[in-house]
Amino acid sequence: MNAMKCFFVTGLGLGLAYSLSAGTNGFVVPSFRGSPNAQFAGWETFTVATDNGVGNLPDLLGSKAIGALIQHEPHAAVLGSGNIYNQDFKSEFEVRYSASGNPSLVVLQVRTAGNELAYDSVKLTYAGGSESADRTELNRVSFGAPGTPGSGAFVASKWEWDVTGKKAGNFSIRFNSADVSVSLDSLTLDVRSVPEPTTWALLLSGMGLLGWTALRRTSP
Questions:
Q1: How many other CB atoms are there within 10 angstroms of residue 80's CB atom?
Q2: How far from chain centre, in Å, is Cα 31?
Q3: CA angle, residues 103, 175, 37, in degrees to nearest 5
Q4: 30 within 8 A of 190, measured Cβ to Cβ
Q5: How many Å apart are CA 8 and CA 26, to the nearest integer?
Q6: Residues linked to residue 105 through DSSP beta bridges, in sequence order
Q7: pLDDT value at position 218?
Q8: What's the pLDDT band for 148 if we cut at 50, 70, 90?
Q9: What's 51's DSSP letter?
Q10: pTM of the model
Q11: Better-predicted residue by pLDDT, 217 or 185
Q12: What is residue 214's three-state secondary structure?
């Protein structure tokens, strides 16, 4: 995420251009990313502004999770920067995830520009229920004089859910804008899963075989 992203914000008849390196978005790398039974999906450039039945598939290098980002409010647009922007209406976002495993930990990170999200709207929903999570603010970079047209901030946030034993293999995370003029800049999803029973069996049998081989080598 080292590319320079620029986006164009219009408001009250004024056009204001801002740019910031996406590499400074303030996201963190969970300790389990890249480990067995972990999946990652990242979105840096969006191509679909409203719900077309498919949404935006992950585009960041290393993305392996089966997921899609969908924006449901019909008046949004994709800017030249690849951001999803809604000047006159509140956007309604959804991340959909599907996998055969059993997730135990879900980490969502979102970066916006302009106005901010309704942070209390962020919820993870699966077959057994719906859960909120505490928000952690990771980064904030303000631009423009407060209260003037075109002012706002780049804000990076993180949410984390422990869904161990809840059979949340298929889930969605929904979140909304708190106001108009919110630009969705980037997003990452990390999921750590509990190994399937067959995986545990293979691991245990492999460990047993190694132990038996070592015993044979040390036996007279």
A1: 10
A2: 16
A3: 15
A4: yes
A5: 21
A6: 162, 192
A7: 58
A8: confident
A9: -
A10: 0.81
A11: 185
A12: helix
User: Hey, what are 101's tokens?
Assistant: 């495993």
Indicate left, alpha or beta for 139 from its phi (over 0: left) and psi (-120 to 50: alpha).
beta
CA distance 58 to 46: 9
The DSSP result for 26-44, as a single string, is -----TTTTSTTEEEEEES
Number of residues in the chain = 220
Question: Amino acid identity of 41?
Answer: A
DSSP state of 56: B
Cα distance between residue 33 and residue 37, in whole Å? 9
d(CA 105, CA 16): 39
Residue 177 identity (one-letter amino acid): S
Q: Is the per-residue pLDDT at 149 higher than 60?
A: yes
Q: Cα–Cα–Cα angle for 107, 109, 112, nearest 5°?
A: 160
d(CA 63, CA 45): 13
| Secondary structure (H, E, C), 172-200 | EEEEEECCCCEEEEEEEEEEEEECCHHHH
Q: Which residues contact 149 (CB under 8 A, 6 or more apart)?
A: 11, 12, 14, 16
Taking all residues of the chain, what is their mean pLDDT, rounded to a whole number? 83
Percent of the chain past pLDDT 90, that is, above it, reads: 66
* Residue 110, both tokens: 């979102």
The answer to whether residues 122 and 133 touch, using CB atoms and an 8 Å cutoff, is yes
pLDDT exceeds 50 at position 23: no
Q: If you search the block for the tokens 């450039």, which residue do you land on?
A: 45
pLDDT band at 201 (very low <50, low <70, confident <90, very high): very low
